[in-house]
Amino acid sequence: MDSWTDVKIRRQYRDILKEHCKENGMKMYKVVENLIEKNCKPKRNKSKFLKQIFMSIYIYIYIY
Question: Domain limits at 44?
Answer without folding.
Answer: 11-63
